[in-house]
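The following record pairs a protein chain with its ligand, S-adenosylmethionine.
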Amino acid sequence: MKITQRLGLNRINVKKENIETVNQERFKTQEKRNHHPDQSEKSKSYFEQDLFPLLKTEEFIFREYLRNKEAKILVAGCGTGRIPFHLLRMGFTKIVAFDIIPEVIQIAKKIEPSLDFRVLDATNLNEFNAESFDLVIFPYNGIDYIHPIEKRKKALREIHRILNVGGQFIFSSHNSRLISYKKIPVLLRTLLSGLLFTGYYVNYGEHGFIITKYSSIGRIKKELAGCGFKDIHVKGDFSSTVRNYVSCKYCHYIAKKEP
Ligand SMILES: C[S@@+](CC[C@H](N)C(=O)[O-])C[C@H]1O[C@@H](n2cnc3c(N)ncnc32)[C@H](O)[C@@H]1O
């Protein structure tokens, strides 16, 4: 295999207006293969499913911050339902979950038809009233695939609007300060695609291309504050703050809507 192919430098044809389509095509393949490999055979209830596991940091955050089993929870970018199914197992029942891709929602519904799964875009949550959820979760860096930056801000403002006062927003995002030699091909692809300096980087893997927003912890804190969030906590993979800044691939954030 040629080195250009190995690095995923061939076939880069990223037009800025196509970024969301590129990302959605990639998620269609990834979600179907990764999350519920047996879904094609027959539908199983979430209790029988060998669920795609929670990340260690998600486990920690859910244990620390999700104490009220009566909480009304909205899961954004739920894919085929990994997080909603874990929440159900944990005893939460008031769950609404959505994704922008109809095909992945179809799979999620097939696995657990009783759950409220919807096809929605996080940038337009008009169907929910202001102050109608206690908790919003946008797991596994889902927010980083919204392009361009104005739409990402719109999603954050929508999430803030639908949260109850005192409600929390939990999500994760790629860390731009990560120091790793693996970033070299990503930087090369991003340079060749003309996206360098936009904050979005071109990743490439077994499921194809994906364009991802990377941010520093400081930038995310500013972004959240700009959309009205307060009391922002960061949870990385390591106990040391310095190590989290440079070694954490993606960090988790817990932000509050306060009066
Ligand atoms: C990395 S996947 C995470 C999948 C699943 N939530 C999980 O935690 O395993 C990100 C998900 O966010 C969804 N997504 C991206 N942009 C979105 C948007 N604007 N509105 C709703 N969902 C979106 C994608 O379709 C994809 O399913």
